[in-house]
Specification:
Blueprint: H1 7-10, H2 36-47, E1 52-55, H3 57-63, E2 71-75, H4 79-86, E3 102-107, E4 110-116, E5 118-120, E6 132-134, H5 138-141, E7 153-154, E8 161-162, H6 167-172, E9 175-176, H7 182-188, H8 191-202, E10 206-207, H9 209-217, H10 227-239, H11 243-252, H12 256-259, H13 261-264, H14 281-291, H15 298-306, H16 311-314, E11 315-316, E12 323-324, H17 327-341, H18 346-357, H19 370-378, H20 382-394, H21 401-411, H22 424-429, H23 436-450, H24 457-467
Parallel strand pairs: 2-4, 9-10
Antiparallel strand pairs: 1-2, 1-7, 3-4, 5-6, 7-8, 11-12
């Protein structure tokens, strides 16, 4: 299939398109800046009779004009020889992938993974081959990789490029093409499906007909992916470029019911057109993701995905317009359950829950008591609240008046909070009985101070005596 039909939801979701790769095969190499230590490492390997290349996503990103993150390397050296050439000072900690020819290390401050060229046997656990055979020919190694855009090899010293399966041609054509027989490759390791759709979204690629057909046929296999691996891949999709299109591709491929049923349930759920001219809840969610400013944190991206999970269950179309009573609280509960299912880190999970629970309540910001407003503005999560509100608005009615009010209030906030004029210990020392009324009195004193009605400790104490009269 030459193009995946996503017209119904795609407008405004694709993000920036990477620069046209075009030009000669080696032209981009002259613009590459990578640590010279890797060139010297390649020369060290060559001196020992071995070859070393940048490979996979590193070469792909260089070709597209992007700065690679962690670096991918490939070598003719088998694991033991490669480890000896790298040295203990470069290798990092335990090396669980060593039997499969995979070593992790850091050089010149850049993390890398070095894999020995290999051919793989049958997969038995949906993740790793039962056996592998080390070899010296990158053309054979290329056939074990997932997509042609990742089967690229580049010499660190001379920039010589090996492209045995036409990966550069596919990148120029904006095409995602699986290596080998698609259904077999995706059933070997179903995570390749999620990775492929993430690459299609973030690199603005279109799966070819065979790849798309295989993805659709194997969509249910995604349910076999261990939840921790699925969480990492989904987080990469949700925080990467083209994330709105990425969610759309997951839906079009039939994957959401098997991995994110809460998101699948959003498709076709209507919304009031005066507030949501963009359409149903699923389209809105895709657009919220697309409107997040780069780069979003993991908790912000997951909150954008989850913030309306409760709408299908709270849909009420019985009155004069569609309403979703209490969907913010239900969405927060559903987000917690979803992230628990994926074994997400506790801190990320709780941040997502808070963002979802408050995405409607934030509309009352202007009516907050002064002390509550200041506490909200000083919250470490306030920038994420603000970012989610902005994306939510841009994905619907596009009114940013409240966003500007909150942003201005945040910018004009004193860098450090003023010390309290009066504390609970002060009041207890004066003989007032411990209890909730002390906290209420201190909150009202803080509000009065923020409003300019009191200015010093004497006035604060006078107000406290009025509020707590009869409690001592």
């Amino acid at each position: 299939m030459r193009d995946v039909r996503v017209d119904r939801y795609s407008r405004g979701m694709t993000g920036k398109t990477p620069g046209n790769p075009g030009g000669g095969t080696f032209a981009f190499w002259r613009r590459v800046v990578l640590p010279s230590e890797f060139r010297r490492l390649a020369e060290k390997f060559r001196g020992a009779g071995e070859e070393l290349w940048f490979c996979g996503g590193t070469v792909r990103d260089l070709f597209l004009g992007r700065r690679p993150g962690d670096l991918d390397l490939a070598t003719t050296a088998e694991p033991e020889s490669a480890a000896e050439l790298l040295g203990r000072e470069v290798l990092e900690g335990e090396q669980p992938g060593r039997p499969y020819g995979s070593l992790h290390g850091k050089l010149a401050g850049r993390p890398f993974e070095l894999t020995s060229l290999r051919a793989e046997g049958r997969y038995v656990d949906g993740r790793r081959p039962f056996a592998c055979r080390f070899l010296r020919d990158p053309k054979i190694d290329a056939h074990r990789r997932d997509f042609t855009c990742n089967a690229l090899y580049l010499g660190p010293a001379d920039g010589k490029l090996l492209d045995p399966l036409g990966g550069l041609r596919d990148l120029r054509a904006r095409r995602l093409r699986v290596i080998g027989e698609g259904e077999n490759r995706f059933r070997e390791d179903p995570l390749r499906i999620l990775r492929g759709l993430r690459l299609a979204a973030s690199l603005d690629l279109v799966p070819d007909r065979a790849t798309w057909t295989a993805i659709r046929a194997c969509s249910g296999e995604v349910g076999r992916v261990p939840k921790e691996r699925a969480f990492l891949e989904l987080t990469a999709l949700l925080t990467g470029r083209g994330r709105g299109r990425g969610l759309l591709l997951l839906e079009k491929a039939g994957i959401l019911p098997h991995i994110l049923p809460e998101a699948a349930a959003l498709v076709g759920v209507p919304q009031p057109r005066n507030y949501h001219p963009e359409g149903d809840v699923f389209r809105h969610t895709c657009l919220v993701l697309a409107h997040l400013e780069e780069p979003p944190s993991g908790s912000l991206a997951w909150a954008a995905l989850c913030h309306d999970f409760g709408k299908p269950e709270t849909l009420d179309a019985s009155g004069d317009r569609i309403r979703f009573h209490g969907h913010d609280r239900l969405s927060a509960d559903m987000a917690r359950a979803c992230l628990l299912r994926f074994h997400a880190p506790a801190d990320l999970r709780e941040e997502v829950v808070e963002l979802c629970a408050f995405h409607i309540g934030i509309a009352s910001f202007e009516s907050f008591r002064p002390s509550r407003r200041e506490a909200f503005l000083r919250s470490p999560l306030f920038p994420s609240h603000l970012a989610l509100h902005r994306a939510d608005c841009l994905a619907s009615h596009r009114k940013l008046d409240l966003h500007k009010i909150m942003l201005d209030a945040w910018k004009t906030l004193d860098p450090e909070p003023l010390p309290p004029l009066l504390t609970g210990k002060d009041l207890l020392a004066l003989g007032y009985a411990q209890g909730p009324r002390i906290g209420e009195a201190l909150a009202r004193i803080a509000d009065a101070r923020a409003a300019g009605r009191i200015r010093d400790a004497t006035e604060a104490l006078r107000m406290a005596r009025e509020l707590l009269s009869g409690d001592s």
